[in-house]
Amino acid sequence: MAKYADYIKRIEIDSLWSGKKHVIWELNRQVNILSGINGMGKSTILNKVVKSVNTNGDIINHLLKGVKIDVEPADATHIRFDIIRSLDSPMLDNETLNMVDTRIRSALDFQLFHLQRKYLDYQVNIGNRIIAELQTGNTDAAQQLSEKKKRFQDIVDELFSETGKKIVRTENEIRFSQIGETLVPYQLSSGEKQILAILLTVLVEDNQSYVLFMDEPEVSLHIEWQKRLIDLCIELNPNVQIILTTHSPAVVMNGWMDSVTEVSDITL
């Protein structure tokens, strides 16, 4: 029996609201974009699916929740997943924030704080594997292991180039240099924080198969970043399955129109 699923094949929801709107959604292995006007149930569908998978990744096809998830392989009991929401997320209370880091002022900052910890763990894991390859004389494999982190840094530098920000590559934690000043992620603009959170989320999964749910992630992103969003996620982890809701035509511009599903097409 496989513990972790590679991806979600099918989502069935008994009802979105008060016994109405039965949902059956057949999913693609890699990119699935849910579209529709406000109030059609895009975010509701995403939220119901996320709630049917608990924080440990257990797949809970519980009748009371009215959600059934079919995965590949079919006998998998868990799924790795993350969720990125729009910047409409509420501010956290000051007491909670100050206990963690006084520079944190929003839920997005809090998310970046936890991603920084995962990024440190990711670097340790990569470093250990590089050392193991070097000890066996496999320098090509060691170099390949370091490429994904370097590509992540190159992407972020490229995206932030208009404001002159560059990742400081001599530090393990993410820091930026800008005209001689050093910045932490909490000092970035809202759009910069959002794209950084998405790319970090993808990177630290370290090429494992997992599902990335995104609920209108483009809200604060520059339109050129919206166009590249899906491609960048897949580049950093080809094994990701993306399930997202969006209002933005830009998100599908780079050849993803065939991956769009209208809510009305999957509801009965």
List keywords for this structure.
alpha/beta; five-stranded parallel β-sheet; 35% helix
Q: What is the secondary structure topology, with strand pairs?
A:
Blueprint: E1 7-13, E2 23-26, E3 31-35, H1 42-51, E4 67-72, E5 81-85, H2 94-100, H3 107-135, H4 139-159, E6 166-167, E7 176-178, E8 181-183, H5 190-203, E9 210-215, H6 223-236, E10 240-245, E11 260-262
Parallel strand pairs: 3-10, 3-11, 5-9, 9-10
Antiparallel strand pairs: 1-2, 1-4, 6-7, 7-8
Could you characterize what this model shows?
This protein is an alpha/beta fold and 268 residues long. 35% of the residues lie in helices and 19% in strands. It contains six helices and eleven strands. The strands form three sheets. It has a five-stranded parallel beta sheet, sandwiched between helices. Strand 6 and strand 7 form a beta hairpin. Helix 3 packs antiparallel against helix 4 and helix 5 packs parallel to helix 6. The longest helix is centred in the middle third of the chain and has 29 residues. It is globular. The two termini are 34 Å apart.
